[in-house]
Structure formats: structure tokens, C-alpha cells
Design goal:
Shape of chain B: globular
Number of helices of chain B: 9
Radius of gyration of chain B: 19 Å
Order of helices and strands of chain B: HHHHHHHHH
Number of helices of chain A: 8
Largest sheet of chain A: 8 strands, mixed
Largest sheet of chain B: none
Oligomer: heterodimer
Number of domains of chain B: 1
Structural class of chain B: mainly alpha
CATH topology of chain A: Sulfite Oxidase, Chain A, domain 2
Distance between the termini of chain B: 28 Å
Helix content of chain A: 10-25%
CATH class of chain A: Alpha Beta
Largest interface: A-B, 32 and 26 residues
């Protein structure tokens, strides 16, 4: 280790050489993990671990409740919403993101908004937080895998941001790109998807007031595993359409390629609206397991068209939603 | 040198294997009862399916292991691990009938016919039923050793069907590491039998 002599004659390590908190915590965690794995078996450990990580308190994020756009259904416990995630950049198991995403550096963070716009823009996270008043919206979240949650998100309509950059007449679609950094995201080593994760919306979908640019949940800054520091929430589409940890938003004239559609086009369409009448090839989408509610002794919940967000139906007038799934 | 065990020692091994084989099921019951699983229905379905596959591989490994090691007592464990294959496949099937269809048999069958992925798994499960049903000594006697053995060769169809089911399940996420691993295990265990079968033939002629 290098030392510099300080004027007081005391040797201090360069601040860059002090082990960062995340690293030593990671090391401690690794050691505890080894011990626990040996003691109780990995299954039980994963469960205990998931809760421990999910419960670490986040920084508060104040927002005005938007009651009109919120459901009054019972909210999913925070530990489930922050402990049961699909975020493959941090591993394939549901508990992996909560366990691994501490390596994600969310500050400084910038988002570039470009493409078919008159005023391209690069905003840091503070700029994004100040762009429009933050609202809390309690949305249903339906995963394509057949489970669902109810989550209070904090953010504002994406349209606020898109209006700032003044889309040109050629802007027909919006493409969202997730960070892809091997140093921060251990899951990138797996070849499950063609990284970076890219998702897309039609411009009218992106401009719809329900489409939420999201910086927080449960009154806090987003936990890393939920897509910090900024993600999208499109509540009438399957969860994977809502890109996490966004670094670039590009307005484009053609339908962008999207990660899941590239990987398995028969299973994941570009639109992927929640639709109980269009089955996934391997399972029915007619019903769902509401996390924290659906147990063994009652049938699953019926899935609603557009996840119950009927106000978006007009976006798809005249479209065959079985064909454009 | 072959490790030989007395009947009493084999009895203890059997008890130990029985208890170990029930552990995954016990963990499922415990986890579900205490609310430790975030998505218990998915956990039960997935875990039971995986263990059915693990026990299928273990069952298929008994005979090759016995031949290669000379540990003849291993054959005394075969029925039990075979029945555990059926047990976990049964839990997996009940999970499907219960959670996906809430015991609506007509809806379940419609689902089976509609989706090749489910159909393949369902056929594998149905083929396991006669094997489990004829696992007792009395049934072996009633059928006669030769016919019983023929019937139990159904396992050679069940293995590949189970692998195909698993393969299609993982296909959506192009996550083939596990299906490739278990496909290779089942293929190797079946290939060994084919190899031994053809090597034995010429010797039988000479005799």
C-alpha cells in the first residue's frame, strides 16, 4: 500500500486505497455465506439472505400520491418486491439480484435522450429527479411468468421528459437501453440474452400518462435490484417491457429490436400487452399468482385485459392483438 | 476390491437413503407452511420436477454403478430410488393439476393436449405409473421376471421424454446448461446398456 506523508507527520493511505464499503461488505458476506451454506444447506440460506438484503433501508424519496392512477389493492410486502426479481444482469434466480446488485454504482449516473429529437439531452440523476414533480402511483405489475405484485412506484409520466427533447415527426418508437457493464453486472457473463438489454415502445405508448419514469418505490429510492437509479414502468404490459437501470433513451423511426423478442420471438412479442386471451406457448396467461396472497387453497386470480388498465385500449383500436402479441 | 455389505448394513443404508430422499419434500412442506417462499406454487412445481429428474438419473445409474464397482448390494436400493422418482413426479403432476387448474381435470387435459411441452411431461408421468404399480415382489412374481423386465424397460422411453420436457421448459430463456448436463447423463446411462447388450451377444453365441 502507498502512503503519503501528511503535513502533520501522520501516514495516511490514499483515499482511493481504502477498501470501499461495498467491497468489504461483499467479503464479509461471502464468508458468512460460506459458513451458512455449510451449516444449513443453500436453499435455506438463499431464503434468509433474500430477506436480509431486501430489508436494508433505502433513502427516502418524497412524492405526492396520485390517487386517480393508483389501485387500492393490497400492496405487496416490500421484502417480496425487493427480494424476488428478474434482473438477469445480476443472475438468473429470483434471489440473485437482491444478493448481487450491491455492485451497481448508481451515482454518478447519466441518461442520454437522443435520436429523432430536436433537443437531445443528457441528464444526471438529480436533473431527472427535478424535471417534474414526483408522484406515487400504486400499480399492478404482471410478470409474463404468471405472477403479479402491487407496488407503489415513485416517478412521473415519461411524457414529461419526452416533451423536453421535442420529438421530430419521424419519432415513431422509443428505445430504452439498460446499462451493460461487466464490472458491475456479473450476470452479463451468461449468454442468456444479447446484452445490452434493450426494450421499446411505440411513441403513443411511451407518451401515455400511465407510462412512468420511475426513480423510487415504497417511498424510497429504488433498490439496485429493482432497476436503480431510473427505470420504466408500463403497467399494462408484461414486466419485462419495463427496462431497468436505463442509460439511454432513443427516439427512432422504426420498431427497435428488443432483447426478449430477439431471444425467443414466439414467446415474447414486441407489444407484450397483458392479455388473458393470448397464451404463452408453454402456459396459459388467463390467471396469475398474486405474490403474498395466492396460496394453496384458493384458485389463482383472473388476469385482466391490459392488466386492468382499460384506458389504454384505444391505443390498439383495430389491431389484432393475437397477431401482435 | 468390491465393498460388500451384510443384510443388516444394507438395511441401515436403506434407512439413510430414505430419509435423505425425503428431505427435499420436507423442505417444500416446511417452506410453504412457514411462508418462506415468495412464490410457493412456483417453488413446489419447480423443485418437485427437478427432484423427479434427479431420482430418474439416480435410478438409471444403479445398474451401471453396480456392474462397474462390483457393489452388488446397490441393486437393493433400486426399487426405493425408483419409487422416489415416481413420488416426486407425482408431486410435480399434482402441483400442475392443483395450482394451474385447481383440480379441473377437463381443463387440465385440454392444457395437456394443447401444449407439447406439457404433453411430453404428462406422457412420461403416465408411463411411470405401471412401473410404480408393479414394483412389489408380489407383482414381479405375478408377471414373471422376463415380462416384468420388459415392462420396466419403459424407463428407456421415460428418460428421454423427461429430458425433452426439461429442455423445452428452459428453451424460453435459452438456458440450456442444465438440460444439456442431464441429457448427457441420461444418454450415457442408456448408452452403457446398449454397449453391454451388444457386447454380451457374441459371447452368448460362443457359449
Amino acid at each position: 500500500m502507498l502512503f503519503k506523508r501528511n503535513p502533520n507527520g501522520i501516514d495516511l493511505p490514499f483515499s482511493s486505497e481504502i477498501t470501499p464499503q461495498s467491497v468489504y461488505e461483499g467479503r464479509r458476506q461471502f464468508i458468512t455465506r460460506m459458513a451458512a451454506t455449510a451449516a444449513v444447506g443453500s436453499g435455506v440460506w438463499e431464503m434468509a439472505n433474500r430477506e436480509a438484503f431486501a430489508q436494508s433501508a433505502g433513502q427516502k424519496l418524497a412524492a405526492r400520491p396520485n390517487v386517480a392512477l393508483s389501485t387500492d389493492e393490497k400492496q405487496t410486502p416490500f421484502k417480496d418486491a425487493a427480494g424476488y426479481n428478474n434482473f438477469y444482469e445480476f443472475g438468473l434466480d429470483k434471489g440473485d439480484p437482491a444478493e448481487n446488485a450491491h455492485t451497481l454504482v448508481t451515482r454518478p449516473w447519466t441518461v442520454r435522450i437522443e435520436g429523432e429529437v430536436k433537443k437531445p439531452l443528457t441528464l444526471d440523476i438529480d436533473g431527472l429527479l427535478k424535471l417534474a414533480p414526483l408522484e406515487e402511483r400504486i400499480y399492478r405489475l404482471r410478470c409474463v411468468e404468471g405472477w403479479s405484485m402491487v407496488i407503489p412506484w415513485v416517478g412521473y409520466s415519461l411524457s414529461n421528459l419526452l416533451k423536453q427533447v421535442e420529438p421530430t415527426g419521424n419519432a415513431k418508437f422509443v428505445e430504452f437501453t439498460t446499462l451493460a457493464d461487466r464490472k458491475q453486472m456479473p450476470g452479463l457473463r451468461s449468454g442468456v440474452l444479447d446484452w445490452p438489454y434493450v426494450e421499446g415502445l411505440r411513441i403513443d405508448e411511451a407518451m401515455h400518462p400511465l407510462t412512468l419514469l420511475t426513480m423510487g418505490m415504497y417511498g424510497q429510492v429504488l433498490p439496485n435490484q429493482n432497476g436503480a437509479p431510473v427505470r420504466l414502468i408500463v403497467p399494462w404490459k408484461y414486466g419485462f417491457k419495463s427496462a431497468k437501470s436505463i442509460v439511454r433513451i432513443r427516439l427512432v423511426s422504426r420498431q427497435p429490436r428488443t432483447a426478449w423478442n430477439d431471444s425467443a420471438p414466439r414467446e415474447y412479442g414486441f407489444y407484450s400487452n397483458v392479455n388473458p386471451n393470448v397464451d404463452h406457448p408453454r402456459w396459459s396467461q388467463a390467471s396469475e399468482r398474486r405474490i403474498g396472497e395466492t396460496g394453496l387453497f384458493q384458485p389463482k386470480k383472473k388476469t385482466l385485459m391490459f392488466n386492468g388498465y382499460d384506458q389504454v385500449a384505444s391505443l390498439y383500436t383495430g389491431m389484432d392483438l393475437k397477431r401482435y402479441y | 476390491m468390491a465393498l460388500q455389505l451384510s443384510n443388516k448394513q444394507v438395511g441401515w443404508v436403506k434407512v439413510a437413503v430414505f430419509v435423505l430422499a425425503l428431505l427435499p419434500f420436507a423442505l417444500l412442506v416446511w417452506g410453504t407452511a412457514t411462508g418462506a417462499f415468495t412464490d410457493p406454487l412456483a417453488e413446489i412445481t419447480g423443485t418437485s420436477g427437478e427432484w423427479a429428474l434427479y431420482f430418474l438419473c439416480i435410478t438409471l445409474a444403479v445398474t451401471p454403478l453396480r456392474r462397474l464397482s462390483g457393489w452388488n448390494w446397490l441393486v437393493k436400493l433400486r426399487r426405493m430410488v425408483g419409487l422416489f422418482t415416481f413420488f416426486y413426479a407425482f408431486v410435480h403432476f399434482v402441483a400442475f393439476l392443483w395450482f394451474d387448474h385447481f383440480f379441473d381435470v377437463a381443463a387440465m387435459l385440454a392444457d395437456v393436449v394443447k401444449r407439447p411441452f406439457i404433453l411430453v411431461g404428462f406422457i412420461a408421468f403416465v408411463l411411470l405409473i405401471p412401473l410404480a404399480a408393479t414394483s412389489t415382489n408380489a407383482m414381479i412374481k405375478r408377471l414373471g421376471g422376463k415380462r416384468w423386465q420388459w415392462l420396466h424397460r419403459l424407463i428407456y422411453a421415460i428418460g428421454p421424454l423427461a429430458i425433452l420436457h426439461y429442455w423445452w421448459m428452459k428453451e424460453g430463456k435459452s438456458d440450456f446448461a442444465q438440460p444439456i448436463l442431464f441429457g448427457a447423463i441420461v444418454a450415457a446411462l442408456l448408452a452403457l446398456r446398449v454397449f453391454w447388450h451388444f457386447r454380451r451377444k457374441p459371447q452368448a453365441v460362443r457359449a
